Amino acid sequence: MKISFIDLDENYIEQVRLWRNSKHVAKYMINDQKITFDQQKLWFDKIKNDPTKKYLIVIFDNHPIGLVNFININNHKSADWGFYIGEVDYLSKGLGKEIMKMAIKYAFNNLNLKSINAEIISNNLASIYLHKKLGFIEYDLLKNAIKKDDNFYDLIKMIYVAK
Questions:
Q1: CATH number, domain at 54?
Q2: In terms of C-beta density within 10 A (0-12 exposed, 13-18 middle, 19 or more buried), how is residue 127 classed?
């Protein structure tokens, strides 16, 4: 598997918006509101030079397939993270685990982080499983914290600490 990351730039913001608005990605987002092109452009202009945020395009075999992000990067060497595979054709190829492993290494080696925090909606069973398999530890559970389509879901908070 040949996976790499490149910095998010203007060339990818529309692709990221389309991924983010897709049904298979939005259903696992805390905020699943549709994003317009203008909103995406404003968001990118706000984050592109923000040192507390790092957005990376996931490249697999020379094709952009998803996004990894680290936000709230702070002086305590901690950040919140998230990722998704935006291209449906790549969802069931076992890439999620490999992307996560590479992103964890990137966080510790390139961003000099000591811990990574994750917030996962309880309907995202695959992500919960992968986080636990890679060594994330659940430290909090917010019952019925997220409402989507008239259903309430728990929000699971997890942390990975550098070894």
A1: 3.40.630.30
A2: buried
Decide: residue 73, CB within 10 A, 0-12 exposed, 13-18 middle, 19+ buried. buried
Q: Which residues of 49-67 are buried (b: 16+ CB within 10 A; e: fewer)?
A: eeeebbbbbbebeeebbbb
Rounded CA-CA distance 45/39 in Å is 10
| Structural domain range at position 91 | 3-161
Backbone angles phi, psi at 23, to 5 degrees: -60, -40
* Amino acid identity, position 121: I
Q: 52: phi > 0 → left, psi -120 to 50 → alpha, else beta; which?
A: alpha
pTM: 0.94
Q: What is the pLDDT of residues 18-74, one digit of tens each?
A: 999 999 999 999 888 999 999 999 999 999 999 999 999 999 999 999 999 999 999
Number of domains comprising the chain: 1
Q: In what order do the strands lie in the sheet with 3-7?
A: 3-7, 54-60, 63-71, 78-85, 115-121, 151-161, 137-148
DSSP string, 110-155: TS--SEEEEEEETT-HHHHHHHHHTT-EEEEEEEEEEEETTEEEEE
